[in-house]
Write a structure and sequence with these properties.
The complex is a heterodimer of chains A (437) and B (182). Chain A has 437 residues and is an alpha+beta fold. Helices cover 33% and strands 24% of the residues of chain A. Chain A has 16 helices and 22 strands. In chain A, a hairpin with a 6-residue loop joins strand 8 and strand 9. The radius of gyration of chain A is 22 Å and the shape is globular. Chain B is of the alpha+beta class and 182 residues long. Chain B has a single domain, classed as Nuclear Transport Factor 2, Chain: A. Chain B contains four helices and six strands; from the N terminus they run H-H-H-E-E-H-E-E-E-E. Chain B has a six-stranded mixed sheet with strand order 2-1-6-5-4-3. Chain B is globular, with a radius of gyration of 17 Å. Classes of the chains: A alpha+beta (437), B alpha+beta (182). At the A-B interface, strand 7, strand 13, helix 8, helix 12 and helix 13 of A face strand 2 and helix 4 of B.
């Protein structure tokens, strides 16, 4: 009997029980039903520009190698030798012609083909062994969305753009503002003793915490003359988006750059007209706040884009890249780099206070009563509208809301039911039709 | 980093200088462990560059790329104004990762002092082990090495730090945050 998470989640009424953050059994099912069936971020074109360039990444707990091929295409395959299961590649990134497993010497090309088995002729009977059958498992579905490469193990999953749905409009507000796209210029990796969903639900749905959780950072990082959030917090003006596929986004309805950094703010304001031409007035000014592409690809409006790799129910590994627009002047790129490391790296003045919340939540959920009583996700419940105020999809008219979280946990519950993707797609269509009345 | 043999060849300093610099680094460690961060800021020269590049797993043939270079990934890349912000943040008493404060012990070892072209400045290497406990059960350890440029100064401690490069002996950082100083 596999665990049924629907007993812990009531997305329509806005209740979630803490068991889903704590249970080892649920976690193992997540690896199978969520991470092996969702579109996961693997790499960006700028990370592997040349043939032979590779990076290691993870899909859930499964290590994968992502490599640029000679014809410019990208391959992704399990970083696991089929012989005894050893890790094939043990560098985080680099450039290679081939990968040799350092256990018995089985060697793979950068496309993941097994090309050499030591002593093959003497020890393997060609009747039962053919090298072409024993390459590492290939990630069968890859999608390159404006330079961002995603992978999915499930042949039945919807196409990436269908999976994104209305979220594409919001994602573009982060990564498609300028001709030439984005490039990754920095990376931080660290470990936080908490469940991956605590981080994911925050960029999906939680602007509300910033005022208190980040009070200290907001206080000392004031930019002279700037609004610095105080006015925005007072008014709470903004919107939040929730997707049938579990994505979420939230933003203040600002009209100018919200960067605390004067050099970045000046450049963003100066280039806003050209961004508006590309994305429209509304998207160019507002929309950028926080967002998550389910399950674990998260972004903030400062160029910080991250994945949280699950590491058991009580631990996650954060891989957080700093992305900058390719066309930004060098001095602006440098300020983005500095800004992210001072705010949202492990030593960042915002980041460390988030970790404190998550790890305390996690620890308390060891308690029976702590898991029994539901947590409440009812902010802006019942206020969802479709395609309102110029925003596509389902939004609520306030940036302090739980619409993104309700969408995330509704989709999570769908996936965890184990129903195949085609059924889930139908279910979501039915729901949309019912909501439309 | 230069090879050990190259660093060894640098001009030695008189034993009193070695002793005074060691004493200075121990004083600095105590200021950090005792939460005297404003006093500690006074040890940072106005032109301080406080830098901690990240590291990654690279094959031996690409080992020169193991450590991030200037302008690349870093945990700290601070001047005096930014260090001041970090200290000010701790004193807002709303910096929740350090409220209530954690307990730390900075153990400073392997101190080597070398002369520079300027009589009042010294190249100083030191290793550190920072033990931290927090709340009821949190405990972690950060080990690494610092490459400092230390300058004589007219203050009760006798010196200021003009440049500090911190190398953490980790690729993936195995602690929840870097909320303090190293």
């Amino acid at each position: 009997m596999t665990v049924d998470v629907s007993q812990y989640i009531d997305a329509d009424r806005g209740f979630v029980r803490g068991e889903i953050f704590h249970s080892r059994e649920i976690y193992e099912r997540e690896l199978e039903q969520v991470f092996a069936r969702s579109w996961l971020f693997l790499a960006h074109d700028s990370m592997i520009p040349k043939p032979g360039d590779f990076i290691q990444n993870y899909m859930g707990e499964d290590p994968v190698v992502v490599a640029r091929q000679r014809d410019g295409s990208v391959k992704a395959f399990m970083n696991q030798c089929r012989h005894r299961g050893m890790r094939i590649c043990r560098a985080d990134r680099g450039n290679a012609k081939s990968f040799m497993c350092s256990f018995h010497g089985w060697t793979y090309d950068t496309a993941g083909n097994l090309i050499h088995v030591p002593h093959e002729e003497d020890i393997y009977d060609p009747k039962v062994f053919d090298k072409k059958d024993w390459g590492p498992a290939q990630v069968p579905r890859l999608a390159n969305y404006k330079g961002f490469i995603f992978g999915n193990w499930d042949p039945d999953a919807p196409e990436f753009e269908e999976y994104l749905g209305d979220m594409a409009w919001y994602f573009d507000a982060y990564i498609d503002r300028y001709e030439g796209g984005m490039e990754a210029i920095a990376l931080h990796k660290w470990v936080i003793p908490c469940n991956w969903k605590f981080n994911a639900e925050q960029p999906a749905s939680d602007m509300y915490h910033a005022e208190v959780s980040h009070a200290s950072a907001v206080q000392v990082l004031k930019r002279p003359g700037a609004d610095n959030g105080a006015t925005r917090y007072a008014k709470g003006k903004g919107h939040q988006f929730g997707s049938p596929y579990g994505h979420g986004a939230g933003w203040f309805d600002t009209t100018e750059s919200s960067s605390r950094n004067p050099i970045i703010a000046a450049w963003e304001n100066e280039t806003q007209p050209q961004v508006a031409e590309r994305l429209g007035e509304v998207r160019a000014a507002a929309v950028r706040g926080h967002a998550n592409i389910f399950p674990t690809f998260m972004m903030l409006n400062n160029g910080s884009l991250r994945v949280t790799h699950p590491r058991g129910p009580e631990e996650m590994e954060v891989w957080s890249w700093t992305f900058v627009p390719v066309v930004a002047p060098p001095e602006v790129k440098e300020q983005y780099r500095i800004e992210v490391l001072r705010t949202f790296s492990p030593g960042g003045m915002f980041e460390q206070d988030d970790a404190e919340n998550w790890l305390e939540e996690q620890r308390i959920l060891r308690g029976h009563m702590a898991r029994k009583n539901p947590l409440i996700y009812t902010m802006q419940l019942g206020n969802a509208r479709r395609n309102a105020d110029g925003f596509p999809g389902t939004t609520v008219p306030h940036c302090y809301a739980d619409e993104g979280a309700r969408a995330m946990y509704r989709h999570y519950e769908d996936l965890m039911s184990g129903a195949p993707w085609p059924e889930l797609v139908e279910l979501k269509k039915r729901r949309e039709q019912e909501a439309a009345g | 980093m230069p090879l050990v043999s190259e660093r060894r060849a640098r001009t030695a300093v008189p034993v009193e200088v070695q002793r005074d610099v060691e004493r200075f680094l121990f004083d600095e460690a105590d200021l950090l462990d005792d939460w005297e961060f404003r006093e500690w800021l006074g040890l940072m020269a106005p032109d301080i560059h406080y830098w901690a590049p990240t590291r990654e797993n690279r094959l031996y043939r690409e080992r020169k790329k193991e450590m991030a270079g200037p302008g690349e990934s870093a945990y700290f890349d601070e001047r005096h104004a930014e260090l001041t912000q970090r200290v000010d943040r701790l004193y807002t008493h709303m910096a929740w990762a350090e409220e209530p404060p954690s307990r730390t012990r900075h153990l400073i070892t392997n101190i080597r002092v070398g002369a520079t072209e300027r009589a009042d400045e010294f190249d100083v290497e030191s290793s550190f082990y920072v033990y931290r406990t927090r709340g009821e059960r949190d405990v972690d350890h950060v080990v690494g090495k610092r490459y400092d440029l230390i300058r004589r100064a007219d203050n009760p401690y006798g010196f200021q730090i003009a440049k500090r490069t911190i190398v953490f002996d980790m690729a993936t950082l195995l602690v929840k945050n870097l909320s303090l100083f190293y």
